[in-house]
Design a protein that fits this description.
Blueprint lengths: L10 H9 L2 H26 L14 H4 L1 E7 L5 E7 L4 H11 L13 H6 L10 H31 L7
Antiparallel strand pairs: 1-2
Length: about 170
C-alpha cells in the first residue's frame, strides 16, 4: 500500500532548499520528512486495535509496538518516508523456535498478522489503521514537513545573513 501526496506553492522553499549544500540538504530533508512520518506513525499507533487479553500466541500491543517510520533520500534526490509494521528478524524467529520448539507463527512477539487486521480475511472483517492514519494526518504531516524544512533553511540562512519567509 504505497500512497503519496504532492504539495504545491512551495517554489521559493524549493529554491532555498536547492541553495543549501548537499550534506545540509540530506540532513534537513531527511529530518523534515521523518517528522512528517512520525505524525502518521503516532496516529497509526492510536488507531491500531489492541487485544484485550493476551493469549498463548499473541500479546496485547504487539502490532502497536512494531509500527516504525523511516525517511530516506532516493537516488533521484527526492525524499521518501515509510511507515510500516516491522516483523521479527530471522535470528529472533530461529531463537524462538530453538528455545521453545514451537513454530514461528506461535511467537507472541511477532506481528506477522498485521495485514490480516488491516485488510481483513475471509472470516474476519478488516480493521484498518494504517490507511486511516495516513488519510487523517496527511495535511498535518505535510505542514510539519514544510515548517521543519523552513526552520532548517532559515537556520542555515541565518548563518550567512538571509531569511526566507516565516514558519
Amino acid at each position: 500500500m504505497k500512497t503519496s501526496m504532492h504539495m504545491s506553492g512551495l517554489r521559493e522553499l524549493g529554491q532555498a532548499f536547492a541553495a543549501l549544500n548537499d550534506d545540509i540538504q540530506k540532513k534537513a530533508g531527511r529530518n523534515a520528512v521523518s517528522a512528517g512520518a512520525n505524525v502518521i506513525k503516532k496516529e497509526a499507533k492510536k488507531l491500531v486495535p489492541v487485544l484485550a487479553v493476551d493469549t498463548i500466541t499473541r500479546n496485547p500491543g504487539t502490532i502497536k509496538k512494531n509500527i516504525r517510520s523511516k525517511a530516506v533520500k532516493k537516488k533521484d534526490g527526492t525524499f521518501e518516508a515509510r511507515v510500516w509494521v516491522k516483523g521479527l528478524g530471522a535470528k529472533k524467529i530461529s531463537a524462538f523456535k530453538a528455545s521453545t520448539g514451537n513454530a514461528a507463527k506461535d511467537n507472541p512477539d511477532d506481528p506477522f498478522y498485521w495485514h490480516f487486521v488491516e485488510f481483513g480475511t475471509a472470516k474476519a472483517p478488516a480493521q484498518p489503521f494504517m490507511r486511516p492514519a495516513f488519510e487523517q494526518q496527511k495535511v498535518v504531516a505535510a505542514e510539519k514537513i514544510k515548517s521543519n524544512l523552513l526552520n532548517r533553511i532559515n537556520k542555515e540562512a541565518a548563518r550567512i545573513g538571509k531569511t526566507i519567509g516565516k514558519a
